[in-house]
Structures are given as structure tokens and as C-alpha cells.
Specification:
about 260 residues, alpha/beta, 8-stranded mixed sheet
Length: about 260
């Protein structure tokens, strides 16, 4: 395990691969930690340097007092990359991780070679939806919404046939810091990246699971239409976390996209 003190927050991270290769940074979803990317990272590590990290409020990173903003998360990532001495990166983010990637690129375009935006959007949900979810968590904790979250995260086939894995990811969600989760909910609720993401001009892959119940395909497609020249792909029989359900397939899409844009 590795830890860095950045922006007065201790961030848990991992680095693997050859420093002479292009660097892919993976940013994870709300209520998860960087283990959701481990199989994709293992697929890519021989050809890229891979950086994984737990955003503030999640995993083994600190849980500073909230609410957080999207720029708080971006500032942490900028500081972590400076700590690691990494200049230019490929950013791969899912859900809120994809929003962090978009906002990072809007602020630091010169440092981003390409974006892989998984199951995310320029704006996710409504203020009312997030306020209702936050109130439900305040009343009953994360365990009270865990089953409904699993239905949005995973395909029907995964939920039916991968019982042990489903339970493990439910545990990951339920063991997340409630205060960190709520503070990050506020960052999503208050973020609308429509204007800044529409100005992005860099290779971008917008990809999603066809059975995503959190950011459905039409929402991800709207992001692809917003970003000039982006690619849009769907993964059949996958939900909100293709990196868990179909890591080999997701890695194949990432490789194809990066090779087409000479970032391989």
C-alpha cells in the first residue's frame, strides 16, 4: 500500500508498469475504491504505466469534512500527479471518476493525452434526486440503499450468477464512509460540466454498459455528442461497472481506442 499527503489529505494510491510508457490514471465510482479497476489494470500494465487511487472520502484515503466540490477532487488528483512526478496522462474514469476526468481536462488540457469516460455524463441526476438519496443515507445509512445500488451497478445476469462477487461489491459499498459518500454526492449534485466539456478537443472514448441503471446508455451517448470527435461504444450484458463485469472487453476497447489515436 502507498499513501501520499496532498492538499492536507492522505490519498491511497498504487503505481505499476514501466515509467517510460504512457500513463493511464484510473478514477473510481461513488461508493467504491480502486479495486474495481484491478483486472483492467492487470490487462494493460505491460504496455502502460498504471496509476490507481482512492479519491477523498473513499477506500483508504482520508475523509475530510464535506461537502466536497468537483474541483476538490480535481485538485487532489493534480497534487497526486505532482507528488508522483507525472506530467501527461490518459485519464480513465467511471461515474464520478469520469466527471473528475472531464473537469481535470477542462482545467489542464495540456496534461491530458486522451480521455476514457466510462458510464458517466456531463451532469448526473438532478438536485432533487441527490438530496433525496442523501436524506435516505442520513436516515438509514448506506446499507439501507445498498440493494437498489447493486441493481443499478450490475446486469441481471451478474446479479443472478455471480452471487459471491455481488456480495463482495455490496460489502465494498456498505463499508464506504457515509460522510465521505455524502460529501461526494454533493460534488456530483452541484456539478454541471456541460459548458466546459463541450469545449474539450482531445481524443475521448465514451463507453457504457447497456444495462447501466445509474447512467443509462442514452445519457452517456449525450456526452459523446457533446465532445467533438469522441467515440461512443456500448458493452452488451454489462451494468454501471464494466471494469468488474467485463474487464477484458473494456480493456480491449481501451486498447483499440488508444492505438487509433497513437497513444499506444
Amino acid at each position: 500500500m502507498r499513501f501520499a499527503k496532498v492538499n492536507n489529505v492522505t490519498i491511497h494510491y498504487g503505481v505499476a508498469g514501466n515509467p517510460s510508457k504512457h500513463t493511464i490514471v484510473f478514477a473510481n465510482a461513488l461508493g467504491t475504491d480502486f479495486r474495481i479497476w484491478q483486472d483492467v489494470a492487470l490487462d494493460l500494465v505491460n504496455d502502460y504505466r498504471v496509476v490507481l487511487y482512492d479519491k477523498r472520502g473513499h477506500g483508504l484515503s482520508d475523509v475530510p469534512e464535506g461537502p466536497y466540490t468537483m474541483d476538490d477532487h480535481v485538485d487532489d488528483l493534480i497534487a497526486l500527479l505532482e507528488y508522483l512526478g507525472i506530467d501527461r496522462v490518459i485519464l480513465c474514469g467511471v461515474s464520478v471518476g469520469g466527471m473528475i476526468a472531464q473537469r481535470f481536462a477542462a482545467r489542464m488540457a495540456e496534461r491530458v493525452q486522451a480521455l476514457v469516460l466510462c458510464d458517466t455524463a456531463q451532469k448526473i441526476g438532478t438536485v432533487e434526486m441527490w438530496n433525496e438519496r442523501m436524506q435516505a443515507i442520513s436516515d438509514n445509512g448506506l446499507d439501507g440503499i445498498a440493494d437498489s445500488v447493486m441493481e443499478r451497478w450490475f446486469s441481471a445476469h451478474f446479479r443472478e450468477h455471480q452471487i459471491a462477487q455481488l456480495r463482495g461489491y455490496r460489502n465494498m459499498f456498505s463499508h464506504t464512509s457515509a460522510s465521505g459518500y455524502l460529501a461526494t454526492c454533493a460534488s456530483i449534485r452541484d456539478a454541471d460540466l456541460s459548458e466546459t466539456s463541450a469545449r474539450l478537443k482531445l481524443p475521448s472514448l465514451c463507453i457504457c454498459g447497456e444495462e447501466d441503471g445509474a447512467t443509462p446508455p442514452e445519457v452517456v451517448e449525450s456526452l459523446a455528442l457533446l465532445i467533438q470527435g469522441s467515440w461512443y461504444e456500448r458493452i452488451a450484458s454489462a451494468g454501471h461497472l464494466p471494469s468488474v463485469e467485463q474487464p477484458d472487453n473494456l480493456a480491449r476497447h481501451i486498447r483499440k481506442f488508444l492505438a487509433a489515436h497513437d497513444v499506444a
